[in-house]
Design goal:
- There is one protein chain.
- It contains 7 helices and 10 strands.
- By secondary structure, the chain is of the alpha/beta class.
- Helix 1 packs across helix 5.
- The protein is globular, with a radius of gyration of 16 Å.
- The N and C termini lie far apart (48 Å).
Amino acid sequence: MAGGNGPLVQAIDPAALARAAEVLRAGGLVAVPTETVYGLAARADRADAGARIYRAKGRPDFNPLIVHVPDLAAAERLARFDERARALAAAFWPGPLTLVLPLREGAALAPAVTAGLDTVALRCPAHPAMRAVLDATGLPLAAPSANRSGAVSPTRAAHVAASLGERVDLILDGGACEAGLESTIVALRADGTWQVLRPGPLPESRISAILG
């Protein structure tokens, strides 16, 4: 866990990944690089772990968290996918696209993660570090950007340490993030409409090329 001189920062290797999985399974917080920015990961099925994210970031608890999953099969256990959602996942996952979809009844997610809404935000990341952590834990991981709310999104481990300090138990140092911009968020609605809720690395033109 975090030490008296600041958070524990480890270069990514098998031992660091095993340590990250151990911390996450115990309900702790781990900052992990993704292809967009560093994410502040916690297991998404435990209310106490989700609450730690909100406290660490100073984030209002009505603001839902993005849940990271390893693949479409894992995503479909948490949300209801229609043809549009599957088409977008086929085109852009793994990658910097977050889909906001209807929450599946009985999904193993803490209500705090979805802020009590009947939708869930899902992303399948491409970065090998986040994928390795997902594989090692076998859990869906809530992982918003690893910074205090309102601060610039972190693209290096040092940014995370400076912003969150000892609020995070472990920082995996994977160097600079490629995109440096948080994921594009697209909401797919039951009435057939869709909306880009947050612009990001994936331009709207590529979304509309698939959805029309």
